[in-house]
Amino acid sequence: MSIYRERGERLRSLHQQSELLVLPNPWDAGSAKMLAALGFQALATTSAGLAFSLGRRDAEGAVSRDEALANARAIVEATALPVVADLENGYGNTPEDCAATVRLAAQIGLVGGSIEDATGHADAPIYPFELAVARIRASVAAARALDIPFTFTARAENFLHGRADLDDTIRRLVAYAEAGADVLYAPGLTTREQIRAVVEAVAPKPVNVLVGSPSLRLSLDELAQLGVKRVSLGSNLARAAYGAFLQAATGLAERGDLSGARQAPPFDTINDLFKG
């Protein structure tokens, strides 16, 4: 059995367990190794975290497909954990673009990935319904044709683009589920009522919820009680890391204050996480 088939099967089984699957989001090989050392069972890439590490603002098209897949490959190769990828909008508008991206993702060892229905255009931020469903259908067909299990997640992006339309979000997620998506995801949901409605609408398929935002005040236990099967953190851990760096560097630059730098973990604590 190939290592990627085994990882794909392991990821599938993690979605079927009774416990909530927590998918942290490394942005490079080093952060992936740290998360693996802490005992997480699977990892997910972050397009925003990658953009920040490249010195770029996060935006649709800020990072090319080749750059994103190279970063994902480094994360895949850093640990023995299953890795899923943020594949943004499939790096193209057409269903064929999405299918090609899924095939390329599997070629570098990814065993799952998500594609969103956001266009990247401010004047029309969300793909029309029929096109959005066709994109998911093509992605699912590409995933099913692979020789490894590939867990495909369909994302409805309304709430991240100023369209807090729960009815349309649910309509889209139900259609994506019917098109064959394995996991459904609407980043930006913040209330118990919104999350419960989504979970019930697409049941029995698992729902992923974006956590880490102050706007979402529910605990992991509370999310699990609502029927959520998976959570991810998006750029949250990357922002936490960059935030600590910014705080320490700002104190040094503005006041000659070393207190922030002195709060860093001991050298050996970090260094030992990169063993193996």
TrEMBL record:
Annotated signal sequence range: none
Organism encoding this protein: Phytopseudomonas argentinensis
The keyword Lyase appears for this protein: yes
Cited InterPro entries: ICL/PEPM (IPR039556), Pyrv/PenolPyrv_kinase-like_dom (IPR015813), Pyrv_kinase-like_dom_sf (IPR040442)
Top-level division of the source organism's lineage: Bacteria
Lineage: Bacteria, Pseudomonadati, Pseudomonadota, Gammaproteobacteria, Pseudomonadales
Keyword Metal-binding applies: yes
Keyword terms, alphabetized: Lyase, Metal-binding
Protein name: 2-Methylisocitrate lyase, PEP mutase family
Single annotated GO MF: lyase activity
PANTHER family reported for this sequence: CARBOXYPHOSPHONOENOLPYRUVATE PHOSPHONOMUTASE-LIKE PROTEIN (AFU_ORTHOLOGUE AFUA_5G07230), PHOSPHOENOLPYRUVATE CARBOXYLASE
One Pfam assignment: PEP_mutase
